[in-house]
Design a protein that fits this description.
The complex is a heterodimer of chains A (155) and B (769).
Chain A lengths: L2 E6 L2 E6 L6 H8 L19 E3 L2 E3 L14 E3 L14 H9 L8 H15 L5 H5 L10 H13 L2
Parallel strand pairs in A: 1-5
Antiparallel strand pairs in A: 1-2, 3-4, 3-5
Chain B lengths: L4 E2 L9 E6 L4 E6 L22 H7 L7 E6 L5 E5 L8 H13 L6 E5 L17 H28 L7 E3 L2 E4 L2 E4 H4 L9 E5 L19 H6 L14 E6 L8 E4 L2 H5 L4 E7 L2 E6 L2 H10 L2 E3 L9 H11 L13 E9 L2 E2 L7 E7 L2 E6 L4 H12 L6 E5 L13 H13 L3 E4 L2 H6 L3 E2 L2 E10 L2 E12 L7 H8 L11 H9 L8 E9 L15 H18 L4 H8 L3 H13 L10 E10 L2 E10 L2 H4 L11 E10 L6 H20 L5 E2 L2 E2 L18 E6 L13 H18 L5 E2 L31
Parallel strand pairs in B: 5-6, 11-21, 16-32, 19-20, 24-25, 28-31
Antiparallel strand pairs in B: 1-7, 2-3, 2-10, 3-4, 4-5, 7-8, 8-9, 11-14, 12-15, 13-14, 16-23, 17-22, 18-19, 18-21, 23-24, 26-27, 27-28, 29-30
Helix pairs in contact in B: 2-3, 14-19, 18-19
The chains are: A alpha+beta (155), B alpha+beta (769).
The structure holds FE2/S2 (inorganic) cluster (2 copies).
């Protein structure tokens, strides 16, 4: 079985797994990193959202063979360390607004929010919010909008 | 911070009985139905639902078993309670921690609420449904907490040789005469050596310092850090990923599998075998399960609804509709009527059906989100033929439910697969299966006819006809058990009982008459409740007709409702709603407001929405999404009797509003030849950000009762109805098909049914941002 090496949450990891296994299953089933959730495996729901070299990506739709040894994958578990704190400002905002209901979508929502705010360089407007595709079946969308701009202000 | 409280029981106040349970640390208990509340009024025969509703039935059903809730105070100061309910996002663990903390004068973060394993002794008392949990647990939890506090104070008093009356409690500390002791330090001394009853009085409502104050969820930190564990996140040794290859038609059974050996030899695959719902595969990763499921070549029997489609089901519903009686009404009477269709909807949460099972020759253990774990355990015991004490059923927090986890479909599959393979399994449904084979809200029609003479409504009749709703998850057992005392079981059994206990006419509409009929059986489709059973649809039909009646009388919808509402709490809610929502403000053509009210679970709620149906909005283009009319504002006013956690209540209303919007405007399943077309969140149009109203406001009314009502399902139906009313006013046409887009051309290409699930994409790196 091929060995795949990459940087996960700041640490070099190696896994023996077939080339075509999607990164989501490498993280969850092989490495036991369960923050990224399965909601569809179709790059639709965005519950699995993580960062690849600082940009949002959907590990359910990337094969492990396409990840290079120098690639840095950040899951929700590694997000605070990217800012050298116990919590990322976006997580703080999520707590302050008390966004989560069941919480299942929230790691993906937070990872998406951080990437969008970084890409935009600041707060999002209504059109930006409207373009977020992450599903929240508990319907926390309104608090997500509130939390994103509160988090953006502190990023 | 809780206020300091003197230990000074007021003898004139009502006493509640609890127990101190013999143990090495302080353990206290209270009956789920406190003795002092078990008076004759609870046993009185059923009234129409506005007097006696499902909440009462669910609460009353706890009487025969008379069970205990047990709270433990540990020497480290933690207060532990194993909640016999599910937590699926509704905020119950937070509310329960608040109730205990308040009555005990303990810091909320010292209270640790876990979910109880299935306890067979609890029977139907471990059912989470009907928005009943807080209502039924409120007094028992407070009683137990009060006993704990009393024992801790008594222990301090004994150590200090003072009267308990001279001591006070605050933030987990007993103090008096310059001395203090933490609850933890007193826990052993306060423990009972023999189990004995303790009589206590409960705090005055006015003295409550935690209840009623906004509190963030107790599991919020875990949720935002990814540490919150759902069933599939648990690491049970050797429980490998497992999936099921399912049929191309509902309930078809496997005839043949051509290539079991070849699939068993695929990379990562450990086991392949036939189970009752299809062919199960177990592999090192779920990705390899997907590959194996797709590779299997299976032939099937026909299934239970082969050949059925939306149109054929609708025809059967129409045929089953009970006739409206032609009322004897005076000349000049005007008739207002409508016939409404509500298509199938999926109650799929974001976490698909899933469960871990470890079945051994002499024992079994399962882990899953379950709302009726006792029934589940009974079924597992029956299926495996094991003694009850060899089956352990762990309730795990769920990634949403909306009614889905009243049934333990994935648990039974996992048990079957684990038994077949002789190995532990971590079984998960694919998203596509979850939409197609998962539980649905049954398709239904509602016919309404009202007669109006001058400024009076003489009659109101409603005939609700539904594909049979599955109640075999415990509410059924509950009603059977209560049937002797509730002579309401007609030919439809549970369904009719639930309909009668939940549905009402909010308005003074003269002679009213609401009836239910069903078609198909619960074995034909996979049905269940979905953030309520009948209310959202019945309510939507009733509110649309109410607007029509108001129109016939030439009255404003809000003024009409205020004049005709029966209930003072609803009137107060509606008055507030009109003010806060700025009812009647001038709006451009193609946009409008809509208003609706609802009462259920001892609570009252109203919604005012604004909708934009102008072409520029309706024709917005979102790739793989549905736009259409957009709700631009939602205001909800809620009177939940006594509010435990305003922040949690607001969250439930906000979430319910998103469901209501989806159910009126966008989300449904399309049945074609015995299977649903939808297989992805880009097919099943639940509310997405581009459908979310920019403005959402929730107003909580001051407390109106001393006990809390239900809230989990309250916001959904009322918003569904208000959006429908707003759409009717904005377009000038009363909608009769829900969701309104159901019969428009499909906005997606259906995924194939063979193979049953799609492969995951591989081009994700092209979409980073
Ligand atoms: S699981 Fe990756 S987008 Fe849904
Ligand atoms: S919080 Fe439950 S799915 Fe978003």
């Amino acid at each position: 079985m091929p060995t795949h090496t990459f940087v996960l949450n700041g640490e070099q990891v190696s896994v023996d797994v077939a080339d075509d296994v999607r990164v989501l299953w490498v993280l969850r089933d092989v490495l036991g990193v369960t923050g990224p959730k399965y909601g569809c495996g179709l790059e639709v729901c965005r519950a699995c959202t993580c960062h690849l070299n600082g940009k949002a990506f959907h590990p359910c739709s990337v094969q492990i063979k396409d990840i290079q040894p120098t690639d840095e994958i950040t899951t929700i578990e590694g997000l605070p360390a990217t800012v050298g704190a116990d919590l990322h400002p976006m997580q703080e905002a999520w707590l302050d607004v008390d966004v989560a209901q069941c919480g299942y979508c929230q790691p993906g929502q937070i990872m998406t929010a951080v990437a969008l705010v970084k890409a935009k360089g600041g707060a999002l407007d209504d059109a930006d919010f409207d373009a977020i595709r992450n599903v929240c079946r508990c319907g926390t969308y309104h608090r997500i909008r509130e939390a994103i701009n509160q988090g953006a202000a502190n990023m | 911070m809780t206020a300091t409280r003197r230990f000074n029981p007021d003898v004139s106040r009502r006493k509640f009985l609890g127990w101190a349970v013999a143990s090495s640390t302080l353990v206290v208990a209270a009956s789920l139905v406190p003795a002092s509340e078990a008076d004759a009024s609870i046993l009185s025969p059923p009234e129409p639902s506005d007097l006696f509703d499902l909440t009462d039935l669910l609460t009353d059903a706890t009487l025969p078993t008379s069970l205990l809730v047990t709270v433990t105070v540990h020497p480290d100061g933690t207060v532990a309670y194993a909640l016999p309910r599910a937590e699926v996002g509704q905020g119950l663990t937070t509310a329960v921690a608040m109730i205990i903390a308040d009555e005990m004068d303990a810091p909320i973060d010292s209270v640790q609420v876990t979910l109880s394993d299935a306890r067979s002794d609890l029977l139907w008392n471990q059912l989470t449904g009907g928005s009943n949990s807080v209502h039924s647990l409120y007094t028992p939890l407070r009683t137990a907490a009060a006993v704990a506090r009393k024992r801790l104070v008594a222990a301090a008093a004994a150590q200090w040789n003072v009267s308990p009356d001279s001591l006070s409690t605050r933030d987990g500390i007993v103090s008096g005469g310059g001395r203090t002791a933490t609850y933890g330090s007193l826990a052993t001394a306060a423990a009972a050596t023999q189990t004995a009853t303790e009589s206590v009085t409960l705090k005055d409502d006015a003295a409550q310092a935690v209840i009623g104050v906004a509190q963030g969820r107790v599991d919020a930190l875990e949720a935002v850090t990814g540490r919150k564990q759902f069933a599939m996140d648990l690491q049970v040794p050797n429980a490998l990923p497992t999936m099921v290859h399912r049929a191309p038609r509902l309930n078809a059974k496997v005839l043949t599998v051509a290539n079991i050996a070849a699939v068993r030899a695929m990379p990562g695959v450990t086991d392949v075998g036939i189970v009752s719902t299809g062919v199960a595969v177990r592999a090192q990763t779920f990705g390899q399960c997907i590959d194996a499921v797709r590779a299997l070549q299976v032939t099937w029997t026909g299934g239970t609804v082969n050949g059925e489609s939306d149109a054929t089901v609708l025809a059967k519903l129409k045929k089953a509709e009970l006739p409206l009686l032609v009322p004897k009404v005076p000349l000049l009477t005007k008739t207002v009527e409508g016939s409404f269709t509500f298509y199938f909807r999926s109650n799929s949460p974001l976490e698909t059906n899933c469960a871990i099972a470890d079945v051994r020759p002499d024992s079994a253990e399962v882990w899953a989100a379950m709302k009726s774990p006792v029934i589940t355990k009974q079924d597992i015991v029956g299926k495996l033929g094991l003694p009850g004490n060899k089956v352990t059923v762990h309730v795990v927090e769920g990634g949403g439910s909306f009614g889905r986890h009243l049934f333990s479909d994935a648990v039974y599959e996992a048990v079957e697969a684990s038994k077949l393979f002789g190995k532990p399994v971590k079984l998960m449904w694919h998203r596509t299966d979850d939409f197609r084979h998962g539980r649905t809200h049954p398709m239904a029609t509602s016919r309404v006819r009202a007669t109006v003479l001058g400024a009076e409504v003489l009659t109101y009749e409603q005939r609700h006809t539904s594909v049979a709703t599955d109640f075999t998850h415990g509410i059924g057992e509950l009603i059977t058990a209560a049937a002797a005392r509730f002579p309401i079981l007609g030919p439809l059994g549970f369904s009719e009982a639930v309909f009668t206990l939940t549905q009402n006419v909010s308005y003074n509409y003269g002679v009213t008459d609401q009836l239910l009929n069903e078609t198909f059986t619960v074995n034909d489709f996979h049905t269940g409740s979905m953030r309520n059973i009948y209310s959202p649809d019945v309510r939507t039909a009733q509110e649309l007709i109410t607007d029509q009646i108001a129109k016939v009388m030439g009255k404003d919808p809000l003024a009409f409702r205020l004049a005709f509402l029966k209930d003072a709490r609803l009137k107060a809610v509606l008055t507030k709603l009109g003010q806060v929502g700025n009812w009647g403000r001038a709006m451009p053509a193609g946009t409008a407001q809509g208003i609706a009210v609802h009462s259920e679970y001892k609570s009252r709620v109203g919604a005012l929405v604004e909708i934009d149906c102008r072409p520029a909005t309706v024709n917005r283009v979102v790739a793989d999404g549905v736009t259409g009319p957009r709700v631009t504002k939602v205001v909800i006013v809620v009177d939940a009797g006594r509010t435990i956690n305003p922040e949690g209540l607001e969250a439930q209303m906000q979430g319910g509003a998103m469901d209501g919007i989806a159910q009126t405007l966008t989300s449904s399943l399309h049945l074609v030849n015995g299977i649903f077309e939808e297989g992805s969140w880009d097919n099943y149009y639940y509310t997405r950000q581009w459908n979310v109203p920019p403005e959402v406001q929730v107003v909580i009314m001051p407390n109106t009762t001393s006990t809390p009502g239900g809230a989990g399902e309250l916001g959904c139906g009322v918003t569904q109805a208000a959006v429908a009313c707003a759409y009717a006013r904005a377009t000038g046409t009363m909608p009769t098909t829900f969701p309104i887009n159901h019969n428009q051309p499909l906005g997606f290409t259906p995924l194939p049914t063979v193979p049953p699930i799609p492969q995951s994409p591989t081009d994700g790196l092209a979409h980073t941002f």
